[in-house]
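Can't attach files on this board, so I'm pasting raw text. These are the components:
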Amino acid sequence: MGKNQRIQRHPILDFERGKKVRFQFEGQWLEGYENESIAAALCASEVKIFGRSKRFNHPTGWFCGIGKCSSCLMRVNGIPNVRTCITPVREGMRVAIQDRKGILPDEPDIKVAKKEEYVQVLIIGGGPAGLETAITSTRLGLNTLIIDENPIPGGQLTKQTHKFFGSKKEYAGLRGFEIARTMLEELRKCGGRYLTETSTIGYYGKDGKHKFLAVQKREGDYQLLGIKADNIVVTSGASENYLPFPGNYLPGVYGAGGVQTLMNVYGVKPGNKALIVGTGNVGLIVGYQLLQAGVEVKALIETMPCVGGYLVHASKLVRLGVPILLRHTIKEAKGEQYVNGATIIAVDENKQPIEGTELELDVDLILIAVGLSASTRIISQAGCEKMFVSELGDWIPIHNANMETTIDGIYVAGDGSGIAEASTAMLEGRIAGAAIAEKESYNPEEAKMIKEEAFSELSKLRESSFLKAVTAGKRRCQQKWDEVKSREK
Amino acid sequence: MKNEPREIGYLTYDVLKKKVGLPSRERLAKGPVAIIECTEDIPCDPCVEACKLGAISKVSLTTPPDIDYEKCTGCASCVDVCPGLAIFVINMNYKEGKALVAIPYEMCPVPQRGERVDALDRSGKKIGVGEIVKVRKGKGATFVVLVAIDKDLAMEARSIRIQGAINE
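---
Top answer:
Structure tokens for the assembled complex are below.
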């Protein structure tokens, strides 16, 4: 320890780390910055092991970086199971590896205040879909509120340093973090409200009235919010898919998106030599971003016989000398406590490993970029019906073109309604926001116009062969919605 | 098929010639011209907006862009706005024996004027040495780097490697 993994120079980003703070890790004083999460501050000090797994006592460390995977649960100021990746580090904080179960102390030092709220539109998740829903519906005159678990608003846009494709209306040409900034400014201008570090606990609606319980965390204080809402829009995004292989639990095996958060939001180098598993757009983009952060990329591997993402993204890496190995998979992550190597292996047409083709790679970082799954826990708990969409390989909430689920007044948008990308997430958010305004008779004519325009924009984007699966999946979803509704009648 | 772009991760000169259509020898001799190395149906259009001469067009949002080499003056204002970093400008009229290639660049360190750098082709292979003639800070922190290089390499050189950079 004592070393510092913070990125000093970056071609695109300036890191605003804020004031220096001192905190304890296992009784030892470390330095962090007030704009960092606990987990990011630990990574910056080269602390790789955050805890031990409950069943096998395996070391665990950073993985998703956005509060979804529970790999970073630690005891903070005596409280166990704190998601350190989404909790800001503070002066004097006591951070410790927890007993594996995470048992609460007998008299936990938690103060909980209670508060009731009512809004016309409650939006769960403040990424591109949620922000666009809020901007649209607030502008049309509705009273809205976004709640989001993360300390920094903007969802996954905040960690995207590449310029976005799409059309001008959805901010094409701007970098992801700039889009987040622009959208937050739009939201501020129209008076939309936003709560960060606020997690939903569950849906407690009854008799057709919607209600969510949520907890807002602020500097160690907790506020229990009971939020009644006429309309709910769940824009909960996605979590990263995992891959089974020996050693996959080791700290140093990260979600590709998790690495983006660590290096692009917090400016901390995730390692020095990387292997990327998967060549979809996420894998390709992160590979390029690793180079920008000063990390060597040893290789990208892909089981398919061709690159998964856009050729232009692949070309950016290849012309800088990064090898892409097709028909290869990971056999093993090496290391006792954390990654210190990887074995990759060629696969045949049936994606079966070919013995004797193993290659050893000297890496300390393995990025898993094998797709995303829609985060639908809250929507399932609320009782919205889901369906398996084979085109998307995922369970998604059944919804219609207006983005309304099988429960009246509950909507979905963005990756939580089927994995796609940010531009279409924004359009879906705009549709949901406008559909609600239309239904509630808030500037209904304008709302209808906005919605129709968004429909046409969305179908233009979905003409791309890269979004074929989404288009097919969404069509089946609408059919299923019609079926459910006619059954109800 | 060998050299299929999606198998090697880049477009070869032959594929570009066939799919995109490269400027004629006569057009190249007249001076700088943009080459758009983008062949997929990505929904995207900042290049169309960026060209004030109307040289770049798209049939629809998801079709690859078309460029009119006669309208294009090689001003490079499209180079730094392309989110795919897929547009380059070639000036075959630069100097005796030397061509100038404009390359979008987003890595540290930023090359300096006068610096000699390795010229890399689309596959990342070193094909020669170039000299940085100009570095322009473009839109959104993308630099446009002008590299002077032997004329016969101008259609292949698409990246540079600076001493001390990653993946050296």
